[in-house]
Amino acid sequence: MDLKTFEIACWAVLTEAAADPQAGFRYLTLATVDAAQRPQARTVVLRECHDVRRTLTFYTDVRSPKWQEMAANPQVTVLGYCHQRRLQLRLAGRVACYAAGSDVARAAWRALPQHTRQTYIAGPPGEALAPAHETPVATAAETGESRFGVMIVQVNMLDAYQLQRNENPRALFHYPAHGERQESGWINP
Ligand SMILES: Cc1cc2nc3c(=O)[nH]c(=O)nc-3n(C[C@H](O)[C@H](O)[C@H](O)COP(=O)(O)O)c2cc1C
Fold first, then answer.
1. Atom of ligand 1 minimally distant from the CA of 125
2. For 118-154, how does the pLDDT look when each residue is reduced to its tens digit (9 = 90+)?
3. First to last CA, the chain
4. CATH architecture of 3-122+145-181+183-187
5. 71-117 per-position pLDDT tens digit
6. Which ligand 1 atom is nearest residue 69's CA?
7. Could you tell me if residue 72 is left (phi over 0), alpha (psi between -120 and 50 degrees) or otherwise beta?
8. CB of 189 closer than 6 A to ligand 1?
């Protein structure tokens, strides 16, 4: 396998996963750094992957703690392991967050199925569960759209690790933002 083939294959599996709920890379771990400099990680659904732009798109509730974490520090890491392919992908980058009112969030919300929209009507993620009788009934005006946010990660580094019987090919791919050159290449597993 040559380096370019490996790179193309990695981006292809991510692109496929964005369209396939059964794919190994459909659920990824998004890691952020919080205000106390502690790492934070959680599972998110990969919604879109653009292999030319090198971007990954996720959706979230803007009331969740990660939203503030990313506003203060947009450096994130995304991690996935596909058991079927025995492939680990670790992607580092900078996230851009689009809240309600932005064109990006509006377009994504429009395409969202009703059952996914429902999750944004519930109480703030991470807060104590309110007793059922205190849970406000969603009004027609509150569709959840005001809480819906889109996170787009601009990937600047991909670390791909393929588990194999006799050797474990691993490579680093760099996608520098402003034309600075950094060589991609095979590295020790
Ligand atoms: C299978 C699975 C998929 C999830 N997908 C998402 C998602 O796409 N977006 C999201 O914000 N949270 C998602 N969550 C919930 C997060 O893992 C997390 O619990 C929540 O967003 C709160 O994270 P925070 O407190 O770090 O902000 C998912 C959880 C599971 C178990």
1. 22
2. 889 888 999 998 887 776 655 655 789 999 999 999 9
3. 16
4. Roll (2.30)
5. 999 999 999 999 999 999 999 999 999 999 999 999 999 999 998 99
6. 27
7. alpha
8. no
